[in-house]
Amino acid sequence: MSAPAAPLTGRVPARRSLSVRPDPVALLALPAFAYLAAAYGWPLLVLLGRSLSGPQGISLTPLAQFLSDPFSWRVIGNTVRTALLVTLVCLLAGYPAAVALARARGAVQGLLLLSVILPLSVGVVVKAYAWQIVLRRDGVVSGLLVGLGIWDAPQRLLFTETGLVIGAANVFLPFMILPIYAVIRQIDPRLAEAAATLGASPLRRFLGVTLPLTLPGIVSGIAFVFSLAVSMYVVPSLVIGDRFQTLATLTGRAFLFMRDEQLGSTTAVLLLAVAVAVVVGSTALARRLGGGGQS
């Protein structure tokens, strides 16, 4: 027999509350967010306001004037080209290093990891001055290239764009290695072994298994290095000098030497826009790649 129906009392069942309670753990981030908002957010808003301020108030005239100058486009081209070259060099050198670091075991892995992290404790100014010694005509790089027969006579790499790319890649290389290394460590090595049992060659295993799985780390490393390289100021100032202007060095000159706050604010906002676009785009791409790899 079926159970008797519940008597009708005329009462409406209470609805569940739809209010969302904040996670108490998330409140731990409030001090950091407050510090970032005060130390970085507010100055950036002031900078943005100055870049858009004209004689008649808020206007895009300063930005239009800057972009109408051919010299400005040369500076933007120098900035983007150098950042891309530095990122490419770091990727070509950092990916094999990340693979070797992830595949190493025991004390060897510890030494390799120490060799990647330890240079981060050395200041950028010290590294830039060291590259001034290495890249000069009688430096180590020139002597090595002459010894290999690539150059017939010693040549100077200091104060050249090639020297700038080499010096900057040395500074930012750990920021490419570490994200790729973190992703490779999470890859199950049995996947490559399974591909090998199916007859895949080493190149096929790399292109079909390892490389697609490491794409989130590659995208993160590219975003880190490009964002740092596009906004570097110390390395270009010491390695190549004022003859090669980028957005960062032009911003420094505008504020420190030319006393032109309008120009400095405009170039700083353009530089910030490029960096933010790269970070946001790479984050979305890395999330998409990571989600696609898990499905």
TrEMBL record:
GO terms for cellular component: plasma membrane. The chain crosses the membrane at residues 25-45, 83-104, 111-131, 164-184, 205-234, 263-286. CDD domains: TM_PBP2. GO terms for biological process: transmembrane transport. Pfam families: BPD_transp_1. Belongs to the binding-protein-dependent transport system permease family. CysTW subfamily. This is ABC transmembrane type-1 domain-containing protein.
